[in-house]
Amino acid sequence: MTKLKQQDYGLMDIPLSCSIFLERALGKYIRINKTTKNFLHDWNCALLDILKSSHYNIHIGALGRKIIKAAEKGDYVVTKYVESARTAPMHALHYALRFSDSVDFFDKKVASNCNIKFVDLGCGFSPLAPLIQYKYNLDDAYCIDDKPEIIDVYSHVAERVAGRAPHSISWDTAKTMVTNNQLNTVVAIGVLPYMKLSEQISRLKFINANFPNFFLEIKYNNGSDNIGEYAFDLATLQKLRMSVENTRTLESTLLHNSLHYLRNFIGAMPNKREFLAGERSLFLSR
Q: The pTM is what?
């Protein structure tokens, strides 16, 4: 694939690629039940169909057009694209592992008889919240994305596939709702690492203090110079550790979740460890 420049990406390209790559990697690397498999396939079919509308052309860049064009030729072309386009296989596996772990997180919470009232922070085009709402027939499902164009497409896709969509709210609204017992669970996958560290720390502290249940992804700088500016380093993590309660429990779940992710990634792609070098994902949960 020709290397794309930053200006070649449209607003909806990366969210689209995440959803398309996710389905292919789940089918290849992770065993999922038929309900989830069918839901993801229907989700991506509806997503691609809706994005082909001329109404959204302005938000589709070179990457998005490549994906849509490949999809028009058939699923096998999309699969080939995902498996061979530069770093796409590694990113696809990453999306699949964190999605699978998010679903497992919800399954355990529901099984423990929690009255789940949840929000997906930074939903993009992820089918996670609509899937969980559909799977467990939940009324209290919410989503947050700061791009109204993304929410517009997301809601149309959810309504077409599941018959309803999670309610779109802002982070400020979510903060009010959780203090009024209208929310008790938050998932934030692939969103916090795009915020300044000060904002991440502020949100992490608020979530720890107010949400009984959470599953969160942050990025950790493993000592490399070639690193994202919003990744945590050891000193920042230690400082955060000293400023929050329940540190021992949080650390144990972080280690468990993150080692589980690393084992599964290396097991699936033993020759792609460079993807994990320098900057890697850490997962906090409760």
A: 0.92
